[in-house]
Design goal:
There is one protein chain. The protein is α+β, with helices and mostly antiparallel strands and 165 residues long. It has a domain at 2-114: Gcn5-related N-acetyltransferase (GNAT) (Aminopeptidase, 3-Layer(aba) Sandwich). 28% of the residues lie in helices and 33% in strands. The protein contains four helices and seven strands. It has a seven-stranded mixed beta sheet. The relative contact order is 0.16.
Amino acid sequence: MKIRPYRTSDWPAVERIMQEGIDTGVATFETKPKPQNKWENESVPGSQLVAEGQNGSVLGWIILWPVSDRCVYAGVAEVSVYVSKDATGKGVGKALMKDLIRLTEEKLNIWTIQAGVFEDNPASLALHKACGFRVLGTRKRIGKLRGVWRDNMQLERRSNLVGID
């Protein structure tokens, strides 16, 4: 497996993997994948990475989203990470997260990465904790998914290299 920048030709696999996550009911409040142009043009530039298997298939992806257009939050972004159902439990998510963290500190000048995770998604929670995220708290009944109110755990990872002055 290798981690590399996303290419436009990866879109069908990215969209398929996102749909797999949506179908679990524990990955996101989204009910359908974001459109390709939004995914490519509204995310943090340079933050889109994919994990590629030995056969060239996309095993998973990770991306950052701006949390605000206010300049004070320029170094704060929200992470989305998805792994193909065929590649879960094989270290794909951790490899993507570690490369993204390195990228945020070396090139993107991101000092805080935040995430929202459903309480009934232990794999995602474990991944984030293993990569240095801490739980800030839980937003109770923050939104409905398929007509049911859901809680969302808020996590963050603060850089030890960027934004410490």
